[in-house]
Amino acid sequence: MAAALRSLYFWILFILSFSTLALAQDQNQFIYNGFHEAKLHLGGIATIHPNGLLQLTNTSERQKGYAFYPSPIKFNTSSSQSLLFSTYFVFGMVPGSLNFSGHGMTFVISPSMDFSEATATAYLGLFNTSNNGLLTNHVLAVELDTVVSPEFKDLDGEHVGIDVNSLISNESALATYFSDSEGKNKSLKLVTGNQTQIWIDYNGAEKLLNVTLAPISVPKPSRPLLSTVIDLSQILLESMYVGFTASTGTIANDHYVLGWSFNRSGKADNLDVSKLPSLPPPPPLSIPSKKGRQIPDSMIIVLVVALSVVLLTIGGAVCIVRKKKYEEIYEGWEREYGPQRISYKNLYKATKGFKDKELIGEGGFGKVYRGVLSSSDQIAVKRVCHNSGQQAMKQFVAEVVSMGRLRHRNLVQLRGYCRRKGELLLVYDYMPNGSLDKVLYSNIRPNLNWFQRIRILRGVASGLLYLHEDWEQIVLHRDIKPGNILLDADLNGKLGDFGLARLYDHGSIPQTTNLVGTVGYLAPEFLRTGKATTSTDVFAFGVFMLEVACGRKPIEPAKVDLVDWVIDCWNKRAILDASDPRLEGLYVEEQLELVLKLGLFCSHPNPDTRPSMRQVMQYLDGDAKFDVSPNSNLLDAFRASYNEASNTVMPFASLFENSSSSHTMSTIDSILNGGR
Fold first, then answer.
1. pLDDT-above-70 percentage for the chain
2. Which pTM does this prediction carry?
């Protein structure tokens, strides 16, 4: 019996030891001939097809995908001599429907599998503007890039690069492979819909990293495409993850991996090509054919030479004209700020050459055109005038910096930008119902009903609260008015035009000293001192609330100012008489009374009396009670404080009784400087 137990113990220990060894081997090396049963960690839009094909991205624009071996790999980084690894995989890039491609994919070794904060497009789903180039990344990547990104000093064409912590490659080369049979390098297209092999080998003893490419039908070449000396023991950590990232831009293609082999301590095993899944066929590229008259043999040489000269001349002229026509400008700040850059050529085609029939708006700094991209997405393109000067440039940079990173359902989304010679272009989501001021004062029936108006007010308040308190920085909009509120297809209000916006860190004092904005929406203390704060935004929002409820502009010739008129109605205990006649009495009295009274307190001359935007949202959502009855002490305090504050402020409204309410800031500057 004892002998039997000892035998049983022996076999149990043997099985456990063998299982532990097998597990260690699995963690050191693995091979996938297709990914049918693979338990990879997937992210973004990456997916595994039923046939075992790993798809990192599809032809969706500005998307990213990634896939990682789920267990960490233990690298021996204690000594550069013993650090060794090898990987071999087969990939394929299938062009999009128009036979275009963008952007590329990477094999990456990273301390983390979380790339949710990485950016698509030129960043390949690997880094973003804030972490690109940081030594703390501890990332090694081999990029297979198909789009030239000047900001990362890319080579002109499809290329392969070795990246350490940054998308500016340590070493890169155009995609080629060495033909041992012919003894020379041959070019290799990456985006063809064909299978391509790649080997990545690192020898710590020599500190040598080799990258080798070849078509699927060619054995591993004897000469690598890239060979660089690098000490990865100073870059990699002991525990790392291995996998792939990929991304698309405004143009896109499919990125696939068909099979993958990895070995941490030796040469990666070869894949069984016969077991790899098939790539989907590329879309057909239709080339129109032309029928021509048959040329006599005696004329062929003369005609070919003459035609060649003509075609070369015309082609050269066309290239020069097109280059000038679509020439763009790049500057250093663009590498740090801003969203996706969109080519001028695409915008020119989208707006049909900026034709007048596509014009949907015009302001002091330029015109706005409707456009349709090749993806059928509708856009609005703001084209700043050539002669707007330095002020237009400052406004353009401000919009790119402010809008590029803001994300809120009630803010107009900036999709991209472009610069060409003296032209500055901003690309937004198209708002089919235009600006609120045009709808609010339209004579077309029916006008905005009360429920649509209160929804717009709540939406804009929510967006402004996000700017003041909920984003990573404080944003002063500085020009809140119906003309800068755009309406989508469902008449939801979205705050736009961030040309005057300013950003500040939380904890600092958010204020500016430039007198900008629109007369009628400028807080009294701002007119006195020229200092804008979040409270001056609240003032403008208060006037905006009154304007939406009353259907009257803040200042109109031969009429009492809007705020004074609402106060008069309140004093007469008939505040609802201030409602917009276009509503025809169809409103919720409690809501209208709340909007009018809250609008007055937001636009109070004393900034200390105004609520914050968080309090405004609480009142509008009913989470806090705003009750000011005609006999309340709060109303008396309001009247006294309003009169006292009003008497200390220059009566700006009287200066514009005979003028339009939208005055240039040069007029205001003249007034503030005593008419000089």
1. 77
2. 0.49
